[in-house]
Design brief:
Adenine-n6-DNA-methyltransferase TaqI, Chain A, domain 2; 2 domains; 12 strands
């Protein structure tokens, strides 16, 4: 496919310094999203707390609706912690300083950028470029800025996002089904055969596994 390839910094503003939220008062609510609020399973924001802007505007990373959050510190990055910022209180959020924030430019869909940085290959390359002390290694901003990304037309980006949305929904349903099975199957075995601690049949099966 003869799509244009550009540096990520051309497709998105990396860690933008603009202060659109400065029009809010210190009493206005914004979303507060620490690292634990990002699910490595679903790559989404799973818990949002609202706090007054004056409490969080210093010492935290700002972002807004449509931005993509990418965990830069180990092991959160390797585990796939990333999210698309949406439904934020008053359109703005603040969170961990261990996020890289990517703000898509006009020629890029937020969801397209979100799916791109979720790729295992992207995280593998990011891990190879990490720097810092053991246990506190981080993905440098220069890696983010200089990474090459294919940039298809908006119409093609939409088509890609639609396909990936469907695939992601199937993946999540499968994972949920596996979790349900993990909870239900042990209970069914106990109901059918009794407690494995006292049931000789299951003890024998377990000794063979």
């Amino acid at each position: 496919m003869n799509w244009e390839k550009v540096h990520l910094s051309v497709a998105a503003e990396i860690n933008p310094r603009s202060r659109e939220w400065s029009n809010l008062s210190d009493e206005d609510l914004v979303s507060f999203i620490p690292m634990p609020a990002i699910s490595e399973f679903s790559a989404s924001i799973i818990e949002t707390k609202n706090r007054a802007l004056g409490e969080v505007k210093r010492g935290y990373t700002p972002f807004q609706n449509g931005d993509v959050l990418f965990a830069k510190i180990t092991p959160c990055m390797e585990n796939g912690k990333a999210a698309l910022a949406k439904d934020l209180a008053n359109g703005f959020g603040f969170g961990s300083t261990e996020f890289h924030v990517l703000r898509p430019r006009e020629s890029v869909l937020s969801h397209y950028l979100y799916y791109f940085i979720r790729q295992p290959s992207f995280r593998t390359h990011a891990k190879q470029r990490m720097s810092g002390a053991v246990g506190q290694q981080r993905v440098p901003v220069d890696f983010m800025k200089n990474y090459t990304i294919p940039l298809p037309p908006i119409s093609e980006q939409r088509r890609i996002v639609e396909i990936l949305d469907q695939a992601d929904a199937l993946r999540k349903k499968r994972a949920e089904a596996d979790k349900i099975a993990e909870r239900i199957l042990p209970a069914l075995f106990i109901k059918m055969f009794g407690d494995s601690a006292t049931n000789r049949l299951l003890q024998n099966l377990e000794s063979l596994s």
